[in-house]
Amino acid sequence: MKNTVVVILLMIALLCGCGKKKMATIEPPVSEPAEVPQTPAVRPPDNPAPKQAPVAPVPKGRMPSVGDTSALKLVESGVKKMNAGSTEEAESLFEQALRVSPTNGRPYYYLGVIAAGQRDYDRASGFFAQAETHLHADSFWMSQILLQQGLILKNQNQKSAAAEKFRKAVETNPSNNWAKSELDAITRQ
Amino acid sequence: MRQENSNFDNFYDATVSYDPAMFRKIVRRVPSSRKGGALRKIFWVTAFIAVAVFLGFTIRLYLSCRKIVDDHLKSQTWSLPSTIYADAPILYQGLPMKPERLVDYLLRLHYQPTPDKHTATGQFYAHGDTIIFQKRVLFYGASAEPAVLVRFKAGTIESIQNLSSNEELPAYELEPVPVSNLFGQEWEKRTLVQYEQIPVHLIRAVLAIEDRRFFSHGGLDFRGILRAIWNDLINHKQLQGGSTVTQQLVKNFYLTPERSIRRKINEAVMAWIMERRLRKEEILELYLNEIYLGQRGAMSINGIGEASLLYFGKDVQHVDVPEAALLAGMIQAPNIYNPYKHSKEAKTRRNVVLRAMKETNVISSSDYEKYVATELKVKPFDSRINLAPYFGNIVKTQLLEKYDQDLIYTKNLRVFTTLDPDMQAAAEESLAAGLEQIDKIRYSKVKKRVEGCLIAIEPQTGFIKALVGGRSYSLSQFDRVRQAKRQPGSIFKPVVYAAAFEEFFDKQRVFTPATLVTDEPWTLHFQNKTWQPKNYDGQYHGTVTLRTALAQSMNVATARLAMDVGLNQVSGLAKRLGFENIKPYPSLSLGSFEVSPWEVAEAYTVFANGGVRTEIRTLKKVSNTNGETLERSRIEVKKILHPQTAYLITDMLTTVLSSGTGAAVRQRGFMRPAAGKTGTTDEYRDAWFVGYTPNLLCVVWTGYDDNTPIKMTGAQAALPIWTRFMKIATQNIPVEDFSSPQGVNIKMIDPATGGLSTENCPSAQPELFIDGTEPSTTCSQHGKHWWKLFG
Lengths: 189, 791
Description:
The complex is a heterodimer.
Chain A: H1 2-19, H2 68-83, H3 87-100, H4 105-117, H5 121-135, H6 139-155, H7 159-172, H8 177-188
Helix pairs in contact in A: 2-3, 2-4, 3-4, 4-5, 4-6, 5-6, 6-7, 7-8
Chain B: H1 5-13, H2 37-74, E1 82-85, E2 90-92, H3 99-108, E3 112-113, E4 123-127, E5 130-134, E6 147-153, E7 156-162, E8 167-168, E9 171-173, E10 178-182, E11 188-190, H4 200-210, H5 222-233, H6 245-254, H7 261-277, H8 280-290, E12 292-296, E13 299-302, H9 303-312, H10 321-330, H11 343-359, H12 365-373, H13 389-402, H14 405-410, E14 414-417, H15 421-446, E15 451-458, E16 463-468, H16 493-507, E17 516-519, E18 524-526, E19 529-531, E20 542-545, H17 546-551, H18 555-565, H19 567-576, H20 597-608, E21 612-614, E22 619-623, E23 629-632, E24 637-639, H21 643-659, H22 664-667, E25 675-680, E26 686-693, E27 696-703, H23 714-717, H24 719-729, E28 744-749, E29 765-770
Parallel strand pairs in B: 1-14, 3-4, 11-13
Antiparallel strand pairs in B: 1-10, 2-9, 4-5, 5-6, 6-7, 7-8, 12-13, 14-22, 15-16, 15-27, 17-20, 18-19, 21-24, 22-23, 25-26, 26-27, 28-29
């Protein structure tokens, strides 16, 4: 009986955890990388595969880097500086982060946010493109990138392209409220 | 602790004796009183005029000397060249690093090992898997850096802790290595030290040999002057200076070395004025920072701070008594007592100073015996005053475009650059070794030495990590990385393939790595001309996939593809990649225009960075001596390609290394995830290799400046240099793999037909496609067996 209660409680906790949706914020929170690939199962050599059309491997996505933990901490410090208005210090920390872990997408994302804030849209687009390459497997971050790309297009008066980006951002992460409100606003116009 | 001034007076005064007999010879002349009144009048008038003239001259002399001294003291004292620093390495948790490597780095920066865990600035404590060190302050007036504890575990950094706040640090930047100085007309190197940093035994050694009554005289030591005159005139000994430290300082600052009464008078007046303007400690600090202490090549070494680093490889505060005695002894004649050139004389002179220290009770007799018996210890001579001359030249040019010369050459700016000194050393060594190998083959035939260059950058930041513009900067300052314009040859081919893949996004035209192309003899009629591209080896391969065509660097297949895609598309992309003067001619596809290795490196960042071009940078930051930032550079990026296109090109270039023209990279043992391309131009005039990992991109060019054919391919001449460099340069960098973007997928194909493979295809292989470009048909040659068509 006691065990059954424990199992039920665990299942409830698990379900609550799975169902919990991330809150949309202006700046995405720093989180652990979600794009760690699973190790494929290895078939024993004495058990050959039945003859069938060869199956292609899937693209490898982003491999975890030894510098990820440090890079995320640096990003965290950079976000604090950025929110406090110390843009130069923030940029310096994000640069350090991407040197520590060059395939981590978060520093690129925030460098893009800073560049976009400075209306340097070419530069911002470059950073968001790099962020996209490294973060596309994470729907939360991908939605944020799409939102930022949409905001750039909106500021450049390319409204239909912007609307498309906002739509994709909402599709990728339905709880991205900012993207939703931007999409609503732009479709009303 | 240092003794009070009075103590100095006591023990120096007690040791000096002079002969008072000299005073007995003073002759007093009394004018006659029996002269007439007129004569007396004339005498008094003359005397009055003489006194007035004398006073006038004296006042004028005083005022002019005072102005010179005051003006000098108000302005900055020395012309200090700006210093170029390498990039500061970053320590972080998980970084593969052993404690020995950090110790090596600290020793290179002249940090001193200490058995005490409570390290001072510029010291480190190493024990087992822990190292504690305290970074130096690079700017005047900046607060001290906290001590840092680094823990290692299994060959990696486990943690980094700030020992002041006990806070765990995610990353920590080490002190950067100085690369070179930016000199104007004066090639003087000086590391300024403050009085408090100078060890007391060094001050005592200098005063014991140069000016024992320094703390008691007022700038002029009359007893010393009389002793010098006595020795000059009576004993006929070698001319003695008799100058005090203050006089020597004044002479160095304001006067010429000529020996004249006029200069001596000026010197005395200025010394007297200086003593009234500054405290004794301030005068001593100026003096010890000013004195000339030898040469390092064309560069003069001034001040005890710089001399300590040059001769002993340590900061001045860590100099011991025999070392202090050597420095003090060298002041009199730095080149005669140079420990590298004249070690015997240097040791004798050191012992003279030690004896003077014993005589003045600065050291005991037993210490004297102990120190005199020690050997002369100096660090191995390092004649290199510029770790990266071509790179330094680029930095200097860039600074001169923005700043006043005076600011660069005299105001001691701190120029923080992107250079990695270890990679720079690896680059120089690899290029030199590679060019030597080429010369072994070619020198006997062409009777001239081959040239080459190498640039390595961090693609995500654009930081130049290493740059070598030629085989010898002293022989040729021509920087081939920036200034040489050479044909890129086959290293341009990936641009053609990238233009083809981009067609899908622009016009829905599908080219994939599995697209088939014909590699056979071909004549193109273009604008009333004919063009017949040929493969380098004269071999033709029939129908091949684009992946194979690029991996084997097939000219005809690539030229056909370029024509199919459109020359305007190819040249347009080339321009966006940063190549200038591109014209849409058919031969463009084979790289028959001119580029610099710098441009090639910048263009290839697009492939390494998922379609984004990064501008190459040399400067990170420029600061003045107080630490105020004058300039800070930032990453400049621009999106050029779709990330899927860039990834396809990177993937195809990995095939170049696994089974294409660059396979020797793997045979030579460079096994990291990497992509690369060989390049050889018409008549073998240029041999190139360009390749990259996710965190390092390197371009190597070899050839002759006068276009003499090198008669070697890129794989033969440039690839070995690239591989040798990359193996050394990446040994301390964590292994990373290229990230694949979204929108690509892998399908099994039959390379003979380019179609999706069946179970009967003998050499089915995985191929990468941009979503929507996958083949829709299966292999036509090895289709399903008929009986399987029914289930």
